[in-house]
What we know:
Layout: H1 11-47, H2 53-79, H3 86-93
Helix pairs in contact: 1-2, 1-3
Amino acid sequence: xxxxDEEDARPEVAICxxxxxxxxxxxxxxxxxxxxxxxxxxxxxxSFRRYNYQSRLVALPFIFxxxxxxxxxxxxxxxxxxxxxxxxxxxxSLPAKVYYSPAEN
Length: 105
């Protein structure tokens, strides 16, 4: 990640900082989502330890899939993505390396 001068007040730099922060939040929240889904699946596997393996195999995919939704909410809350503006989410969704040439008149 590129470091920008803290005292630089140009609007381009402010947008880049905002985008970097939004991308960081998105990446951390995504990792938390997978961790939550895996943790929920592991806990169900452990709680079904006295049942046969067929009951585990039936339950696990549904719990894992539901855990991704729970994890998305938890990740957004932990990283603060639930309080960011739609503009920040849009900036995070832009492609990484796109170069624009100046408009020709």
